[in-house]
Amino acid sequence: MKTRKNKSREKARKSLFNSESAGATVIAAILLMSIIFTVLTVVRTEYVPQWKTDAEQSHMSEVQNDMAELKSTADMVSLFTASDQNSSAYGYSVTVPFTMGGGEIPVLEPSKSSGTLSVNTERYRMVITPKRPSIEESPQIVDCGGITYYSNNRQYLDQVFRYENGALILSQNERSLMRQIPSFSIQKTEEGNYTVSIQAIEMRGKNDSVSSNTDASLRLTGISAGPIYDSAETGEIDNFTCTIITKYPDAWVSYLKETAENAELEYDTDYDLGKIGSDSVYFSFHPTDGKNLERLYISKSVIQAELGAGGSLNSI
Known about the structure:
The structure is a single chain. This protein is an alpha+beta fold. Helix content is 33%, strand content 40%. It has one domain. Strands 10-11-17-13-1-18 form a six-stranded mixed β-sheet. It has a six-stranded antiparallel β-sheet with strand order 9-8-7-6-2-12, sandwiched between helices. It is elongated and about 105 Å long. The termini are far apart.
């Protein structure tokens, strides 16, 4: 009897030990899972937003590079169209790719931000009026249009990249600055006179937009290029005014001010510059003290812009 009792007690003791071991394993697993979930929660709430911000900021740099590629391509198309008089018969076309979305973090935050690429949805007009003594010539009016990228970020500040009349502009929080300059030059000659050269770039095409978080493309085709006004042919002029209608006046005011100062012109003496309302810029060139406007030359390139679903840089 004692032997049977001892065996029963031993069996019960082993069963208890096995039960405690199994319970300890379950508790350990629960604790481990709790630690993992806690770490993941901390990572998602404390680190992922900053990583997402950095990733979207990096994507904005990619978009700026794409817009810079657009500017250089438009300059190239304009140059080829102007140099080849027969190009207007068949057109010189180039397709520029755009990375519309980005900022994803693999596994932790795989969703992408998106963007919108638009053609001629914002107005840009340049009106240049040459003047002679007591005579005001007909204004030269150019409706340039433009290409705009609007970001739709989740963490990083939204930005707008705008190409208009040869300029690449960055806009953020209702402030704008010029990232790449247009072709608007004021040059001082050896005699102290001034030559002003303005090349307008008209983006022709229907109002159109595409929104995506993958890729898109823009096809540029050279239509025409050539002079539209030259004071050397029409006769001497004393001064001129230039009015620019744009959604980004701050960028243009800063650029024109720097251009005039680099040409050693004095504000309020040789030129006037300022904003008219919230969407116009006024630049008046009237050199004094022996300074003369020797020549005003205005040319215009016309480029057809068409949106596509995607593609790579190639020419036809």
